[in-house]
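Hey all, quick one. A colleague (J.T.) asked me to put the adenosine-5'-diphosphate job into the tracker so the inputs and the structure tokens live in one place instead of scattered across chat threads. No bug as far as I know, just bookkeeping. Sequence used:
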Amino acid sequence: MSETADILVKFDSVQKSYDGETLVVKDFNLDVSKGEFVTMLGPSGSGKTTCLMMLAGFEPATHGEIYLDGVPINNVPPHKRGIGMVFQNYALFPHMTVAENLAFPLEVRGLGKSEIEDKVNKALDMVRLGGFGDRRPAQLSGGQQQRVAVSRALVFEPKLVLMDEPLGALDKNLREEMQYEIKHIHENLQVTMVYVTHDQSEALTMSDRIAVFDDGIVQQLAPPDELYEKPMNAFVAGFIGENNRLFGKVVSIDGKFCQVELEGGGGMVKALAVNIGGVGSRTTLSLRPERVTIGAAKGATENSLSATVQELIYLGDHIRSRVRLTGNSEFVVKVPNSHGHVHLKKGEVTQIGWEAEDCRALDA
Ligand code: ADP
């Protein structure tokens, strides 16, 4: 099979403006493979829903083309795209029973009575709601209603399912449970899913790949571990997971590494030269709190800086320490609690350290 045959959704140089002036989606390119779970993640207003609405057919693209299974669909109306959809506010028909809600998309497609009954029962079993077919939506909890909405989107066996913040109205525990449930349904059915959320942990839990949006532009498109381990710019580093930032100026570049002089006399740091201008340019260094050691001797790691302990918080599996560096930068260090206690005191001056490989020099 050729590579293009494996691609179900393609956004090709897609732009969107609502008012004819401002582009809220600037130049969107994305290939989604068959069976893949791709999430669009980003802050509110960054253009995620607009992209999903263009794929669903509810909003026209201002420029560019969207393809479904190799066919351009810009001029195909939503109901002819054969896409399943789930939104935050369920949109179940309140006057119909659960079974009638699920039967609806099948009746529209002209299936026979016994086939409909069979498919509805299977779809309800899939979301563990077998036996709830005769209830009305108002007789179900929020989580159950959302499971009905998920099964209704899947009941007609679409090739593609779109979900826009489907768990946004649920409380935290239920949301986490549903994340796994949707993920397992995706794995079992091998259906292609495009999902929108502003919640980074939800995106990390569920997705094969994540497109991180900011201001109408995809900042990075990568699997969850790569986004966390190898952010390509300061926005992604700050948006995904916890992140320490240090500001400075590039003083030399040597292969894949660079030397950075920290602002405010904070000292010199060796870092990976990921996304920087030339010598003399400003950079933001990005470091994960769990990659930093505290209390080790100077020289034990490639970089070490003197730090004053501001706060220690015992969190069971790890201890979280907030320290202040020369030049007044704040820094968070996470020390795993696997080797007894960390012998640190508030106000103590100690060393923090890290390897150059774990410190990314990014755009300023
Ligand atoms: P997100 O899903 O990331 O929160 P949206 O795609 O909803 O972002 O919105 C992107 C931008 O487009 C925002 O500035 C929003 O105000 C604007 N926008 C969204 N929908 C409309 C609309 N129907 N008419 C005009 N502007 C809109």
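Adding what we noticed when we looked at it: The chain has a mean pLDDT of 93. The CA atoms of residues 97 and 135 lie 5 Å apart.
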